[in-house]
Design goal:
disordered N terminus
């Protein structure tokens, strides 16, 4: 990174959080609208600053009370009155009430103190591209994050999003030591700058579970929830972590708690329900998202193989997919159409280095074709690389059920599934 370029940009850094027509200046404790100062009571200013810093994320009532009145016992009415006064200024819909839990600042933040406005605009665009989840869009987002960091090496959120992009590309394009090392370095840099950065904690979970460290992710997230008990994003991460550890009921409970706090939050609960044999529920929840594999696999498990075949064919024809996703979907289609040799070849040639959960789905495919030895090998590899298949899955999954007795007869050195 060019230090000269970075220093040049620092002379144009923003001094305020910007949202809508407003500017919030933390250093001067000043709120402006259309460049005109607006009077705010001290507690109202502190509450607004707290919510703007965590824009888009739920903040519990207790966390706000602890921030505004540290070491002082006050009733919840004090907080309610503060929020009411703020809404009169910034707009009622800007601060959303999350029933029984807290509040969320819903207006997009378009700038923050210490970051050049042009840099923040690039960062906002990078997040939009990353959210599209295509290889092309995530590649563009990664490059845009790099540009942001060249302009401002201490911009922690950009480091977190760079790590997320690099890990996504490593998993779904081609495994590259460069992407892996860069993802890990990016997250560590983000944590060094801001150990409490929510995005870094949320995204780093993907790295840990995909590299066989779901137990470490669990400890980190549970510790974080002690400090931020009203953070649904940590609970959404635990939905995945618990599933990887074979703790399906705990995964469901984490999902329930997350949506109680924020009904709009998205989790990977459909995959947990699938492993519990609750296929209709998995289909219902999965259908609200960009659909790829899971609902087709669920329809097949329910015995409606024709519907599964139609879904898979249509998606494989029209969608731009990664090689790994093509292998997963095309192998299931081949299984359902009786093309056993092709299905085996697709799965054997797939690179699943960073995706241990897919090995479970491959095991189901092998088992459905009567390839018990290959299915057991896939399950063993999944366990060795960090995904534990819960006993309940063997009991509820008609495709895997024939393997249960075989698995139980394996030597004790094999992880107990």
């Amino acid at each position: 990174m060019s230090q000269g370029f970075s220093k040049k940009n620092q002379s144009f850094v923003d001094t305020a959080y910007r949202f809508g027509d407003f500017e919030l200046h933390p250093r001067d404790r000043l709120l402006k609208r259309a460049n005109a100062p607006i009077a705010l009571q001290p507690k109202a200013f502190d509450a607004l600053l707290c919510m703007v810093r965590r824009a888009g994320h739920l903040i519990s009532k207790q966390e706000l009370i602890n921030t505004l009145w540290p070491s002082v016992h006050v009733s919840e009415t004090n907080l309610t009155n503060t929020i009411v006064s703020l809404r009169k200024i910034v707009g009622r819909d800007t601060i959303r009430t999350v029933s029984k839990h807290g509040y969320r600042f819903d207006l997009p933040v378009e700038g923050e103190p210490g970051v050049a406005r042009s840099t923040f605009e690039k960062f906002a665009r990078a997040k939009e591209l990353a959210a599209q989840r295509s290889l092309e869009s995530v590649s563009r987002a990664r490059d845009m994050c790099w540009t942001c960091l060249a302009e401002d090496p201490d911009f922690a959120p950009a480091w977190a999003w760079l790590g997320r992009c690099c890990w996504f590309l490593d998993k779904f394009s081609s495994n590259s030591p460069t992407n892996v090392d860069l993802a890990n370095a990016s997250f560590q840099r983000a944590f060094t700058i801001d150990p409490d950065l929510a995005a870094a904690h949320q995204f780093y979970t993907f790295v840990q579970v995909d590299t066989g460290h779901a137990d470490e992710a669990m400890c980190r997230l549970l510790k974080r929830l002690q400090c931020h008990p009203g953070e649904p994003e940590s609970l959404t991460s635990l939905v995945q972590v618990f599933r990887f550890c074979g703790m399906l009921q705990q995964s469901i409970e984490a999902h329930k708690r997350a949506i109680e706090m924020d009904p709009a939050v998205a989790t990977s609960i459909a995959h947990t329900l699938f492993l519990m044999g609750q296929y209709k529920s998995a289909i219902e929840i999965y259908g609200g998202r960009a659909a790829y594999y899971l609902d087709a696999a669920a329809w097949a498990a329910l015995g409606d193989e024709k519907r599964a075949i139609v879904l898979l064919r249509e998606r494989l024809e029209r969608m731009s997919l990664s090689k790994l996703m093509i292998a997963l979907m095309a192998s299931l289609l081949a299984v359902l159409e009786g093309r056993t040799a092709e299905a085996v070849k697709l799965m054997e040639e797939a690179n699943i280095t960073r995706e241990p959960e897919i090995l479970l789905y491959f095991a189901r495919h092998y088992a459905r074709m009567g390839e018990g030895d290959l299915a057991i090998r896939a399950l063993k590899k999944a366990a060795e690389t960090g995904f534990v298949c819960a006993p309940q899955t063997f009991n509820s999954d008609v495709w895997l059920r024939p393997l249960r007795e075989v698995w139980l007869r394996l030597p004790a050195s094999v992880p107990d599934l």
